[in-house]
Here is the input.
Amino acid sequence: MPSSRDLARVCGVIALLVGVALRVEAQGEQKAQSARTWEVVRRDCRTSISRQEITLFGNGTLRLKLRTEDKDELRLAELNPDEVQAYIRRLEDEDLSEVDEGHEEIIGSLIERCSLFLDLPDREPERYYFGRFDSMPLTLARLNSIVDDMFVEVEQLAPEGGLPRNYFPEPGDILERTDGHLFEVIALTSDRKGVELQGRDDPLTIFVALDSLRQLFVALVERREFP
Here is the structure.
């Protein structure tokens, strides 16, 4: 029969292993959270009556915000890790050390001004201000061209009036139905062929086949970020 000292040692080892496992899990969650909130690049162009903002997040989310006098629009697309790294490499290739930061200016209804924020690995965050149609240094022009490619990609992956082409429902997603009502994704059905959704405006629960999701819902309004 083991002595009390042996039992104490075993308990100590177990406690140590549990502590290490919890720290590793916490670090993994912290890293995932950091990737979700890390804005690799964000360009915000606006006038007093319109706005176009596109952001690439470290976890692969491409977010496009469009605002006009008539409506506000949000589109989300998801890139895989290889695609994110390809964009990061293209951004890193541009040497902006000699480019003037510029300055913010008064925004007019017909004069579009832009701000561009860049946060690349192993570099200090950078920011630049310019007019959308200004004559600009070649490196800054190429940087804008890369962001333009992101704009085209998010438009292709998440066309207006429909769910993103590569969209797969996740719990917490907020979807807009064809009648304008909002629904929250609760879970997939046990056979993973359907989705349970709950109304945000009224306590209505519905089940929709995955194949029919695009026929009933026209937009991904919000993708919830979990801590």
